[in-house]
Specification:
It is a single chain. The chain is 59% helix and 9% strand. By secondary structure, it is mainly α.
């Protein structure tokens, strides 16, 4: 078994399980108090153990980090919430993402670790949120990052319109980290010396050529 297959086969299911378990735990532990949901979404929450008598928020770091129970029927930052055919768009994006990831995976060297991690993370994130949409038509989000410091809150509201970042989940984190790692890899390879890359492709070392150069 190649190194890339080991990484993807272990990391992707691990993050997918972590995502799904965390969402089930949130629904079964915290009360949903957001906008009215469609009957299918409510039924999906009930199947996961939702109870309206549960507490509405679990404070981890006062004034900065909490777990809440949120349901997002749209994309990131609530986009496409009011679009009637959003599920078809989400399905299309998921299929395209799977195709791109599969193509990227096939092109990787067998011992490539860095890009294998990228493929595993983005795959787990895309599938994790897709499972939510198929099951209940919404995505369970629960990580709330905010500030209630008067100075910082006023600055955030002035510049961003809010002092609270959009609520997210493990799948979202996997996608963001995977994309950031991909951009980092792209920048690292883009700024490599073209001559050094050409020499490596030819099986030559620039240092070796310098050593072999005639000395006066």
């Amino acid at each position: 078994m190649s190194t890339k297959l080991k990484i993807v086969a272990l990391l992707a299911p691990l993050m997918l399980i972590l995502d799904q378990v965390s969402k089930v735990w949130v629904v079964a532990t915290l009360r949903y108090s957001g906008p009215r949901l469609a009957p299918t979404a409510l039924k999906g929450l009930e199947q996961l153990g939702h109870d309206a008598t549960h507490p509405g928020e679990l404070e981890l770091i006062p004034g900065f980090l909490s777990f809440i129970h949120a349901q997002n029927p749209g994309a990131a930052f609530g986009m496409l919430v009011g679009f009637e055919h959003r599920m078809m768009i989400f399905a299309g994006f998921t299929v395209i993402a799977m195709g791109v990831l599969w193509s990227m995976y096939k092109q990787l060297e067998d011992d490539d670790r860095f890009q294998s991690v990228i493929v595993a993370l983005i795959f787990a994130g895309a599938v994790g949120n897709a499972i939510d949409r198929v099951h209940k038509g919404t995505v369970t989000d629960f990580v709330k990052v905010y500030t209630d410091d008067p100075t910082w809150a006023a600055w955030c509201v002035e510049h961003f319109g809010t002092a609270e970042y959009a609520t997210w989940n493990v799948a979202d984190a996997c996608i963001v980290v995977g994309v950031c790692l991909y951009l980092l890899h792209y920048l690292m390879t883009a700024f490599e010396s073209p001559k050094a890359v050409a020499a490596e492709d030819a099986g030559e070392s620039p240092l070796a050529r310098a050593d072999e150069a005639p000395q006066e």
